[in-house]
Amino acid sequence: MKLFGVDVGGTFTDVIFSDTDNRLTAIHKVPTTLDDPSTGVIQGILELCEGKNIDKAQIDHVFHGTTIATNAILEYDGAKTGMLTTKGYRDIIHIGRHQRPQNHSIMQDIPWQDRPLVQRRHRLSVTERMGPLKDQVIMPLEESEVRGAVATLKKQGVESIIVNFLFSYINPAHEQRVKEIIEEEYPEAFITISSDVSPQFREFERFTTASINGFVGPKVKNYIQNLEQRLKDSGIAAELHIMSSNGGVATPKTVSEKPVNTLLSGPAAGILGGAWAGELTNREKLITFDIGGTSADIGIITGSGYSESSARDTWIAGYPVMVPMIDIHTIGAGGGSIAHIDEGGAFKVGPKSAGSRPGPACYGHGGSKPTVSDANVVLGRIDEYNFLGGEMQIYSNAAYKVIDELAGELDLSRERTAEGILQIMNNNMANAIRERTVQKGEDPREFSLVAFGGAGPLHAVEVAKILNIPEIIIPLYPGINSATGLLTTDLKYDVIKTEFMLSTNMDFSGLNADFKGLESQLVNQLKEDGITENDIQVARSADCRYAGQGYELRIDLSGDVLDEVTIIEAFTNFHESHKAEYGHHFMESAIEIVNIRVTGMGVMPKIEKQKIHHDHQLEDALLKTGETTFNINGNLEKVETKFYQREKIPAGAEFQGPCIVLQKDTTTVIPPDCTASIEEYGNMIIKVGV
Amino acid sequence: MTKVQSKKIDPITVQVVLGALENVAVEMGHKLARMAYSSIIRESEDFGCALVDVRGQQLCESSHSTPLQSGPIPGYIKGIRQIMEERNDTFYPGDVIMHNSPYHGASHGPDVGFCIPVFYQDELIGFSFTAAHHLDIGASTPGSCGIVDAVDAYAEGLQFKAIKVYEKGVKNRYVWDMLSDNIRAPKMVVGDMEAQIAAAKIGAQRYLEIIEKFGLDTVEAASEELMNYSEKMMRDAIKKLPDGEYTAEGFLDGYLDSSDPAKKDLRIKVTVKVHGSEMTVDLTGTSPQVTDRPVNMPLMGTVDIAIYLTLRSILLDSTIYGSFPQNSGLIRPIHIVAPKGTLCNPIFPAPTIARFNSGNMVADTLMKALAQVVPHQVSAGVGNLQVVAFSGEKDENYWVYMDIMEGSYGGRYGKDGMDAVDTLYANTRNNPIEDIESHYPLRVNRYELKDNECAPGKWRGGIGSIREISFLADGSFSVEADGHKFAPWGFDGGKAGSVGSLSIREKESDEPFKLPSKLPNRIAKAGSNIELAGPGGGGYGNPFERDPEKVVSDFLDGFILKEKAFEDYGVVITGSGEVDYQKTNEIRNRQR
């Protein structure tokens, strides 16, 4: 199989090729074409084909990570939308949960009020009302009102219509009927119904999720249609799959219907790339750590896979989103984060960033504020002549100047200030990891930290030390990790149904029937996508809570049909994970099954393990020896440090810190008390305190 | 730039220690919200968590909680220590102390605090604390809001004055039994309390881990830096204000249906006195306490929090200043004068349980006073909240549900008011309709913004909402609200906002029957429908200066009528829904 992974980022479009038959891998980077990212995608594939003599007509699959949906919502640049909603509830998406985003601010903005996904003039209400009980129709649907409202929206010129009815997650009949009517009356419109996108309770969150889908929908649909066409026109006959936020890929058709599922397309692929790196070293428990210019993404992978964020914890551009997503914790800390003394006199790093323009002072684009990258330059960790494989000039004097200014204000030495910037930054990141591990009952000492992105490997070891993480993995290609991750995915769909069933009043036959129904829905979908029965896997789970609580924990329910016996085991698991997650459980309490979920996977071809081989010796990789500053037991010391070139270090080589490993897309810092080695599959492993 | 680091500790370590402390408070809040049973904690987030050092200074607080809960925590601890001293009692490792006395630091009776003393090498070094609003605390009628007819502190429910529910790690079973026997919905309340204790325990454990990692000296030095930091922020902000005195008045409905004039039209008077980097907030002139009705405010726990929070939101607005730690240093430059025997400093046993709206009026009036000095940092008048306790009996047990109806903000310099949000010192969340109807015999029949009603201004007032809830089974309800008589103030030429209201229809055929803003428990038959209308915030600036496009936009969105666009704003809208600039300019010029 010939596979391509293409991940579009803000600056670069990363391309990876893998031939699973002869175990060949090749990578390439082209600038992202912001106006129409498909141009860069095609260019990247064609250039790599040409460079490596790959027959483009023979490509089997193209896996693609896209930011079209993400950018549309971040930049508030989407479709002209209209909404049909239940009469009496026109403003659910405007009132929200009536909570202000900030406690201490008169001048704050409220995203859903200041940037409405559907303007009120285009929110029309119609007579209908479902109730909380199965088959409870409180008010039948008034179809003539619907037709009138659709005509109004059409006249208003909306291109996308979202249907948001109360309790549609229990009974979607009215929403579905309205969809049919819109298809009759206004077939050109992009249609979203909330029960399709996110059939779970909490109307503000569901309506908003559906509205985001409608808002980004036409753009994503056009983009994908266009990309498919251009692939064809370029003679690339491959099947296209798009990365979803849930860690799987989907077909162009399903993504065009539910683009809201691609909001975390790129970062999700990054976590998969991290998992792949872990697999190459036989590690299951991983913390993935991706630092770029402005932010850091953190993901947790345990024996049972990557964690998924709970429905209530996911926000994009200030809006809640209730669809399955890999749990990715993003904090505003990166190489461009600005160090400053704030109004109260505290020494802070970030969240403001110098971005890529002007960028850190050391980039020489006129940046005049001290950043994390400047601190790395001052300490000798970023090398003036070998940054990004020597392709980018670094201006050390500019870095000295801005750090010296800050040092003067703090009354500290230049080095102490620079090292302080890193310490504050690294501790911020360690706290973010602690939130996702220690605070959830996971011990970081059992994990490996997989670091990638332009700045991840610069900080990884120091962050690992703060958390007592014993081992750091730097993948072979840390700069195109998301693209690599694209080649490790499966087709993956999730379906969900709200149950509200109490452990004291179980209806097993109903529950089993519901699971079965969801399962056959998924299997049909996967078959439609061309997956054969043997390549389909399904997994059942349930979101449970103690009756009365408001947050759920997910419990695996794969295995037997549910009955009085098997459910006991499931509930025991719930008590245990509640205890692990929160440090406490309520054994006497009734348990409520809030939602049931089925995840369906269709197995896709993947990248294969591949040994690195070249004839170098470690000495060949030594670029130079220089002075670098490290914090050794609280004292700053300048130490002789070896600078190696990653591409030339042979497999099996072992070397001691302090050293700096340079490669085209990142720099790895290995402090004095650490040992590094290169494994046969290309990972660099750093052991702390050895 | 002033030199900032203390001699004892470098500025890098300060940030590292503070980050670790904040991380603990976040964890406590996160876990409490997720473990809690009642919607008032888990959905409304009416809780707070904090670590406090041995001197009583707050080190960190959970950011995702309501300020009215976190703010008072140092006061709770002060109250607990005072009582324990009077009783010759001591803290031991393993103690868990329950406290809710509004005359000893608690915000009001239903906000129960749990305090865990933290020991390091046999020495008391601080406290881990959680406070949360409970559904019921054994008052005369069901629920813990809308107890508007309590005649004294004893009628408000159980009073816990530094009660050890665990001593040296041993559970005091009888206290728990007595508690369960004397409150409604005990399973929920006790479950919430256990969640609070569990979260406080985590806080205590993490506090110790931090001390062990950094050393007690370092943590103490870092916390002193933290206090100084916040103090400096506040002092610098006050210094920017011209010295002088700025006064404003606001009025509360009180008991609109009462024949006693002392229970109505209650005055809140605020005089802000700025002197250099110090500020005094003087409440002299505020109405006397209402001795037998619970609208009085505890000075410590309600009045002080309303003042600190408002000052911080205006002078150190987080949109402009970013987030920074809330702690005891912040309040060092602020002095409060509150004459004893008034609404804002009542004398025991005057009741206080329904003090919520009074405190929000203190906040609003303080903003009105400050509007004279920092007009670009305030909003025009803010609408107050309305809280309804629904209850009923099922299988010889009570169900209780509390619904918080939002207010809205006044217009702001450069921005319209925030529509339909919780206001000022409260910031809770509403409960999803789909959750309410799935778990209680209630139906939310309507929840949307008011059509065609918002206060005119260059930046218009925020829009209030309408919420209708009906009973599907027999039950009862009580209401704690205000702002039915006095509308939020307009500012700088902006018009006043609109009042809130409450009415009931017992049968569908009935006309709505208006009810007062303070309603003691009232029986409701199945089918009764309660209609709440939220207040609209005041307008800011001359409406004739409003961007005509914004006026048209409000018209298209159904927020104002065409006639009002003309009358209030001098904007003429064409048949196709566009600005008629020629006519508009004519009218607007004529007005000048």
UniProtKB/TrEMBL annotation, chain A:
A Pfam entry, by short name: Hydantoinase_A
Domain Hydantoinase/oxoprolinase N-terminal: 4-185
InterPro entries, per the entry: ACX-like_C, ATPase_NBD, Hydant_A_N, Hydantoinase_A, Oxoprolinase-like
GO biological process terms, semicolon-separated: glutathione metabolic process
Residues covered by the Hydantoinase A/oxoprolinase domain: 206-494
Residue ranges constituting the Acetophenone carboxylase-like C-terminal domain according to the UniProt record: 510-681
Entry protein name: Hydantoinase/oxoprolinase family protein
Organism of derivation: Peribacillus cavernae
Lineage: Bacteria, Bacillati, Bacillota, Bacilli, Bacillales
TrEMBL record, chain B:
Pfam families with a match to the protein in the record: Hydantoinase_B
InterPro entries linked to this entry: Hydantoinase_B, Oxoprolinase-like
One Gene Ontology MF term: 5-oxoprolinase (ATP-hydrolyzing) activity
GO terms (BP aspect): glutathione metabolic process
Domain Hydantoinase B/oxoprolinase: 10-543
Gene Ontology CC entries for this record: cytosol
Name assigned to this protein: Hydantoinase B/oxoprolinase family protein
Organism (species): Peribacillus cavernae
Organism placement in taxonomy: Bacteria, Bacillati, Bacillota, Bacilli, Bacillales
